[in-house]
Design a protein that fits this description.
The protein is mainly beta and about 120 residues long. It has one helix and eleven strands.
Length: about 120
């Protein structure tokens, strides 16, 4: 049985958005009124429930910049799903300490939140 997921993924060098279907060992992205696009399966990124300040959807493996109230530092973090906590989290990557925050908390509380790219860019 094929699993259908709405995602973003990379074909050769660009992002494509649609429904990913893995069939006969090949992953293809299907979009309305467009021929299926073969994509690199390891670049498939699931959407989170969050959006940034520009109303762009935040996807798995996105790199975000955020600033929390009362803190002077801007943080850069990778978005990922935590199986342990069963929710979307951000892993801060520009800090000496390895720390994780709940993505929903960041989306709600940050005074600045922007998608800066993705680890597959």
């Amino acid at each position: 049985m094929n699993k259908i997921t709405y995602v973003k993924a990379k074909d050769v060098n660009t992002w494509a958005y649609g429904v990913a279907i893995r069939e006969d060992g090949i992953c293809k992205l299907y979009q309305e009124d467009v021929l299926p696009i073969p994509v690199k399966e390891d670049t498939i990124c699931r959407p989170t429930e969050g959006v940034d300040d520009k109303d762009d959807i935040i996807y798995e493996n996105d790199l975000i910049e955020y600033k929390m109230p009362y803190f002077h530092q801007h943080y850069i973090a990778k978005v990922k799903y935590s199986e342990e906590y069963m929710k979307w989290v951000v892993e801060v990557i520009n800090s000496e300490q390895k720390c994780y925050w709940d993505l929903a908390f960041i989306v709600k509380e940050a005074e600045l939140l922007l998608v800066k790219g993705n680890v597959f860019d």
